[in-house]
Amino acid sequence: MVRVVIADDHQMLVDALEATLTGAGMDVVATTVDGAAVVALVEETRPDVVLLDLELPGQSGYECLREIRERTPSAKVIILSGSDDQAAIGRALELGAVCFIGKGVDPADPAAMIRILATSRPIYQAALDPRVSPRISGQSHGTRRSRRSA
Predict the structure, then answer these.
(1) pLDDT, tens digit, for every residue of 77-118?
(2) In terms of Cα–Cα distance, which of 97, 95, 91 is closest to 122?
(3) Under a CB-based contact definition with an 8 Å cutoff, are residues 65 and 92 in contact?
(4) Residues 6+ apart with CB under 8 A from 134
């Protein structure tokens, strides 16, 4: 079973993602809306995948990503963001994110992507500016814990 941590500043989105992923047979081991809690939750729960928003209160998603990659390199970080800023996407992928998912995707898509990413290579979901895609294509070769995992 794929173990997932969800970190986003919108509680309603966190709840919807948790329901979608749990319904798809994944184990959501922790959720948070606070950037300052993300790294500790990841270290404590050792998930396979971290769904991480870039805009978090307390600590930026970029800083969380950098620390997760340093402290828990086995966790695959997927950026979940409402921004389609090409520089932000490129920066996140350069810092070690394995995928970028725009918040406008069909809610069923993240579950399929997470399953793929938990066991294989990085991918990118969304149209990229042609100035960014060559760099990326080269790379592609409230806080709570799950009741089930606690």
Answers:
(1) 998 888 778 888 889 989 999 888 776 665 556 666 666 566
(2) 97
(3) yes
(4) none
Tokens 């060559």 belong to 134
The neighbouring-strand residues paired with 100 are 79
**Chain center to CA of 1:** 17
pTM of the model: 0.76
Answer whether residue 75 is part of any domain.
yes
User: Residues 145, 30: contact at Cβ < 8 Å?
Assistant: yes
Contacts of 20 (CB under 8 A, 6+ apart): 107, 108, 110, 111
Q: Is residue 110 part of a domain?
A: yes
Instruction: List phi, psi (to 5°) of 76.
Output: -90, 125
CATH classification of the domain holding 45: 3.40.50.2300
Residues spanned by the domain of 107: 27-130+139-145
